[in-house]
Design brief:
Elements: H1 2-14, H2 21-37, H3 42-58, H4 67-83, E1 98-104, H5 110-123, E2 129-133, H6 139-152, E3 155-156, H7 165-178, E4 183-187, H8 196-209, E5 213-219, H9 225-237, E6 241-245, H10 254-263, E7 267-271, E8 279-281, H11 284-291, H12 297-307, H13 310-322, H14 327-340, H15 353-361, H16 367-378, H17 382-386, H18 393-403, H19 407-429
Parallel strand pairs: 1-4, 1-5, 2-3, 2-4, 5-6, 6-7
Antiparallel strand pairs: 7-8
Helix pairs in contact: 1-2, 1-4, 2-3, 3-4, 4-11, 5-6, 7-8, 9-10, 12-13, 13-19, 14-16, 16-18, 18-19
The structure holds guanosine-5'-diphosphate.
Length: 441
């Protein structure tokens, strides 16, 4: 993956005393290759590498960092710059009903995203939202939006099967205005490929609906072709933003980079799953971190903060960065996991989520196991928790007796802790190891 590749390149650079032109060239060659493998479009790769190279060769190496760290920082800053510097939320600053027009290829996740956005605006922003499907070609699509609307508790415009898309758009606007809605979201017809007739139809809808935002929904897994799709839509409709879906399945991260570079339009939201709340703000710096393989530490902290105090979460993030993880930390993790209802929360935010989830699903974790493990750690002395190396045979026997379990359970826990500590170290450093069997014992 891109993360792994860049990790390896910088590992090499980290050991050096000084950075010469050859080092920069070598690093850039690797970065170029990694980006291409990550499915970033060729022209974006070329431009990106040129930019980074210019800055890297010209840059002074600060005394306090190694040249390798300097390059990492330059690549990181440049990634953030290309991705858009700051988060870019949906803009609702207009007269009600504020109209959002959703466009994109069929199957990109347009209808799902429409419902996800509606849910978020109605629950978080307390907006009164009306949904309308303009997909007159596929009655099933209209029905799908109606069902999803019901599911998220948001109104949908009643379906009238004889109307044209433009007529529906007009009726939706009227209903939005008279019904006192804050936001109107129009889900347009999907197309399987760029199709002039449908594009002209969408332009006509745009002229009638006068949307405040035109959001292009793109599947992150589409690859090289996504860039052409984005350019075509943007060229005709002058979109205001992009929603990238299936980011949960895109370990390579290339799509975000290409989309943004190709259109210059901000990525506003990302879809991270099929469920209605699997929608997140797009944070350029976090994605850059993720691309560089540093793990999504900020999201990790925020997610954890929902369940534990912010202070605990920050301490945890610091430990992750430092790569130190003792048995007290494991105990806190177990308590948090219990609170979060299993392995969903904190752990799944780390890089390598996919493999992780699979490992979890295969490992039959039950609540009682958490309790037993917590009891074991409670039976240890403070010193043993801080320095697990101390756990020799006689100490293990004492702890087992104290916790009322077999010694083999202590061994299992010690092993599990060691594996987790190793993993934390890798997360802190930027790589990600194999996670299989972590909880299998
Ligand atoms: P549309 O044709 O563009 O309206 O696409 P749909 O909204 O019907 O979505 C197509 C499929 O993609 C559905 O099965 C969705 O559940 C799924 N989907 C949409 N967004 C995401 C996402 O962010 N992650 C994942 N894993 N699946 C998604």
């Amino acid at each position: 993956s891109l993360s792994d590749r860049l990790g390896k390149i910088f590992e090499g650079l980290r050991g050096r005393g000084a950075l010469n032109a050859t080092d920069v060239d070598n690093a850039m060659r690797e970065i170029r290759r990694a980006l291409i493998e990550a499915d970033v479009s060729l022209e974006v790769v070329r431009a990106f590498v040129e930019q980074v190279k210019e800055r890297a060769v010209g840059a002074e190496v600060t005394r306090s960092v190694t040249p390798g760290q300097q390059v990492v920082k330059i690549v990181h800053d440049e990634l953030v710059a290309v991705l858009g510097d700051t988060a870019s939320p949906i803009d609702l600053n207009a007269r009600a009903p504020v109209t959002l027009l959703m466009v994109g290829l069929q199957g990109s996740g347009k209808t799902t995203t429409t419902a996800k956005i509606a849910k978020r605006l109605s629950e978080k922003n307390k907006k009164k939202v009306l949904l309308a499907s303009l997909d007159t070609r596929r009655p099933a699509a209209m029905e799908q939006l109606r069902v999803l609307g019901e599911q998220v508790g948001v109104d949908t415009l009643p379906i009238v099967s004889t109307e044209t898309p433009v007529e529906i758009a007009r009726r939706a606007e009227r209903e939005g205005r008279l019904g006192g809605y804050d936001v109107l979201i129009l889900d347009t017809a999907g197309r399987t490929h760029i199709d002039e007739e449908l594009m002209a139809e969408t332009v006509a809808i745009k002229d009638i609906a006068n949307p405040h935002e035109i959001l292009l929904v793109v599947d992150a897994l589409t690859g090289q072709d996504a860039i052409n799709v984005a350019r075509s839509f943007d060229g005709r409709l002058d979109i205001t933003g992009i929603v990238l879906t299936r980011v949960d399945g895109d370990g390579r991260g290339g799509a975000a980079l290409s989309m943004r570079a190709a259109t210059g339009k901000p990525i506003k939201l990302i879809g991270v799953g099929e469920k209605m709340d699997a929608l997140e703000d797009f944070h350029p710096s976090r994605i850059a971190d993720r691309i560089l393989g540093m793990g999504d530490i900020v999201s990790l902290v925020e997610k954890a903060a929902e369940h534990v105090s912010a202070e605990d979460a920050q301490k945890m993030a610091k430990k992750l960065k430092k790569g130190s993880f003792d048995l007290d930390d494991l105990r806190n993790q177990l308590l948090q996991m219990k609170k979060m209802g299993g392995m969903g929360g904190l752990m799944s935010m780390m890089p390598g989520v996919g493999q992780m989830k699979k490992a979890m699903a295969n490992s039959n974790i039950d609540e009682k196991m958490f309790d037993r493990q917590i009891a074991i750690i409670n039976s240890m002395t403070k010193k043993e928790r801080a320095e697990p190396e101390l756990l020799n045979a006689s100490r293990r026997k004492r702890i087992a007796a104290g916790a009322g379990v077999e010694v083999s359970e202590i061994n299992k826990l010690a092993k599990q802790h060691r594996q987790m500590a190793d993993m934390m170290k890798k997360v802190g450093k930027g790589g990600m190891g194999a996670l299989g069997g972590m909880f299998g014992g």
